[in-house]
Amino acid sequence: MKKLILILLCVPLIGFGQKKINIEEEDFIATGNGIYFQGELLNCINCELWNNDKIQEECTFIDGRRNGLSVWYYDEGGYRKGFYKNGVEYGIFSYYNKDHILLRERMFNPDTGQEEYEKYFYPNGQLAMHAFNNPIDEDPDNYQNIECWKEDGKKIDCKLLGF
């Protein structure tokens, strides 16, 4: 009986191991309908997407679309992490530098995938900018409600920070 339980516990873990995919391969194609690998929509749990011998992303793909937690890695050492549902961003996306310090945060509506707010932070953790609602006229630099602060926490005109 103990052997049967051990087999039942271990077999699913073996089947759901990490898959390493080089996105430079000709068999890897990203389209508006999803991501294809070797001619079929990509399905894998804990996928690692590699580019030029560097990991680019860790994510789960179901029917060619990102689902669940996704972590993107940048060349300079920073990374971002957030959640996807059927290929649409939802919840909070956090952006970090190479020292794991939070630099930026974006919140996406779980029902619509639309951005609800965006925040930028100073390296000391102080909030630099908080923009509410969606950008006006699809212009990512034109927010409806925006507030900004200096590193010491004093409120300032956002134009001083370039927003």
Please state roughly what percent of the residues sit in beta strands, choosing from under 5%, 5-15%, 15-25%, 25-35%, 35-45% or over 45%: over 45%
Low-pLDDT stretches? 1-16
At the first level of CATH, the class of the largest domain is Mainly Beta
Give the number of DSSP strands. Answer: 14
Q: What is the domain tally?
A: 2
Give helix and strand order, one letter per element, not per position: HEEEEEEEEEEEEEE
Query: CATH topology of the largest domain, anyone?
Result: Histone H3 K4-specific methyltransferase SET7/9 N-terminal domain
Q: Report helical residue fraction.
A: under 10%
Oligomer: single chain
Number of helices: 1
Alpha-carbon distance between the two ends: 65 Å
Task: Estimate the mean pLDDT confidence.
Answer: 84
Classify the secondary structure makeup into a structural class: mainly beta
Write the CATH architecture name of the largest domain: Single Sheet
Biggest beta sheet summary: 11 strands, mixed
Description:
It is a single chain. The protein is mainly beta and 163 residues long. It has 2 domains: 17-108, Histone H3 K4-specific methyltransferase SET7/9 N-terminal domain (Single Sheet); 114-163, no CATH class. The chain has one helix at 2-15, and strands at residues 19-22, 28-31, 34-37, 40-41, 44-51, 54-62, 65-73, 79-85, 88-96, 102-108, 115-121, 127-132, 145-149, 155-156. The N and C termini lie far apart (65 Å). It has 1 helix and 14 strands. The strands form 2 sheets. The protein has an 11-stranded mixed sheet, with no helix packed on it. It has a 3-stranded antiparallel sheet with strand order 2-3-4, with no helix packed on it. It is elongated.
